[in-house]
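re: ur question from earlier - yeah i can do the single chain one, its not a big deal. heres the input i used so u can compare w yours
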Amino acid sequence: MLARRNSVRWPAWPTLAFFVLGLGSYAWIEFGFLGTWSTDLRWAFTTRVAFLLFVVPGLLALGRPVSLARAAASGLPARLLERILRSWPVRLMGNAIFAPVVALVGFCLFLTPFSAALRLDPTWEAAITIGVPLAGLLMVLPVTDSGLLRTSLFITAEFMLAFVELVLDAIPGILLRLNETVLDHAPAVTGALPRWFPAPLHDQHLSGDLLWFIAEVADIPVLIILFVRWMRTDRREAQQMDELTDEQMEQLTQEHLHRFQR
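and the output i got, formated as tokens:
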């Protein structure tokens, strides 16, 4: 409605993507199989956390909420929004390697007894339900926002580091899969269990397999975004260079050479 007041026509597809794909995937995860069995099954818990961190924010980002906020805001709200988007915390989270690093650190908790507390304690369960998708949004939205400008050299460095993270993100899942002892030391589930219910060690192995797969697949969109961003940045920088006059080009060359002579 605010966008219409600013004479901005907002397409229907981003709105449908936000509500159907974004919020719909959140409801499917929280109220479906993963949310129901998250307390009892290790693999359901780790898969749920990984989906809440990677899948839900990515699908919500298809709704382009930052672009819609820019189109709808004006005056003081617009200036505050731009100040927030250009603040150092947002620029830090907008670094394309920030999300894989956070995921690596967070997934390493699954290798410790603390993961049992995260899975079994109701307070931590509530914190995960709300906090993990919000953290994922804070990491995804700056990366997908085309309004944040980067140099081609910076994006190249991001691209190289993202490839390193592609390997590192596999470590928690591999360790969960290969370890022959139950790492979280959680008490065994009591009561009548379904016949398909896995043994604790097999449950941990399944958790490692799925976590490994999800973490690796989640890095692919980051690499794609970086590649698209690099192409756009390179095209923009090339256009800026073409618009320079011969005198301006000569001045830039002299400044560049003078910098190396110091």
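The chain has 14 helices and no strands. not sure if urs matches, ping me
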